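Let's sit down with a protein and look at its sequence and fold side by side. We need material for that, and I hope you will provide a protein of your own picking. Once you have written the record down, we can walk along the chain together.

***
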Amino acid sequence: MSRQSEIPGYYFDPERNRYFKIERNQTAPAGASWSATAVKRRKVEDKEATKAKKQLELIKSRIQRAKLLAEPSTGGFLQRELGASVPDLTEAIWAKGLRDKGEIPFVYANGPERPKVPNIPGFYVDGSDHKTGLGAVYGTLGDRDLYSCYIPTDANDRVRFATDEAAPEQLTHTLRRELIPVPYMSSIKYHAPSNSMLLTSREPRAANGLSFFSPPLRRDEEGPVWGLGESQHYIMVSLNSLSGHDNMVVNTCEAASDASSVTCLVGANTGIIRLRTNGSVSYLTPKPDPEEVVHHNPEPKDYPTDIFSIDFQRGGHPEVFFAGGRPGRLWMCDIRTPVQEWDWMRHPSSIAHVRSVSEHRVLALGPRSAMAVYDIRAGWKESAEPCVRFPEYRNREHVYIGAAAEPEIGVVAAAHDDGKVAIYSCMMFQTMPLETHPSLWVGVGPYVKKISFGTSDDGTEDETW
């Protein structure tokens, strides 16, 4: 209610909602609120209350949150000591401490200018060589050739190639060409139980939709464990002849664990193919009709068709996996059961990447800036809603776009269509290719950049990524 207008010589009583003429104390009834003394006392009390309120607001404006508490590490730990709950503390500390840790060029620069080429489409990083501490990376620039390079690092865990001519070759920037031609590689994966490097080709009518080779491993000899550039034999699998389609395109490959009956699963625009541990290759989904035309916008079927991404269930049965592609259906599949028993739920767009982030949760992302986490315990149905959405994810139309995650820290790294890489906090993730420490590896032009938690070259932490 708005404040009533003051009338000289009168008092407004808000309880009775009327005006009373102010009387002298001698004539006013005892305890009357309109007596001169009572009115004067209330004016003094109102003035003091207004003054106290202004003073309280002034004090409140001077109280500010300490800048120290905004720092994830010091502030976060201090808040925990004070009893506050900071659920994303680990993720925030890791993201705040990211530093540029060098890069591995997949071209030889002829001058100071960096060559301008499209982002490197695929690579694999390994850091299991604890004998020499040398990492290993395989990558391609999108043509027919696969290159490899050792990754030497300094005491600050930064990529550091030797420039001394007398230095061992594995410490210098030396690209080694692997003798295996794979046009337009779509994925590079490694199956550790069989020591098989798995390569897929996105080229239609390719004679080697799936290729694999075994890099030499020397764990009991001097020098690096990985024998880069020394592979002499490889196997090519013509998936076109298996499907009967000339326009078959292989989009992805996912290596299985040693407890699975398959070495890997291959996702193509004609369905899902399995490579068994005994070397046989067959369709896991119904084999496509050779007369059927493969469309970019296929009609939904009762089984996966055009597949962009596959990931095995984390913490679950080794024969259970998730798959996604076109149209926007997130599939939960089991190698042991018929495809008619597989479940699915709808995603707002085509699915470029699917990641099992825990036993019960799965991440899906794709065009239309659609990125979400689904809980499979909520049920598989067309109207299923995600348990977590990421409204800040930006990808309007790309299906060939990068994404990875680090389960120990709890972050998801996803490429945006403006060329940036965003890091999202979540509590369950896909494993990144690791070296000796958790690192983020990003393909930027012809370079594989290493982004990791740590300090800059001079030991300070003022150089952020």
Q: What stands out?
A: The two ends are 55 Å apart (CA to CA). The chain is about 10% helix and 30% strand.
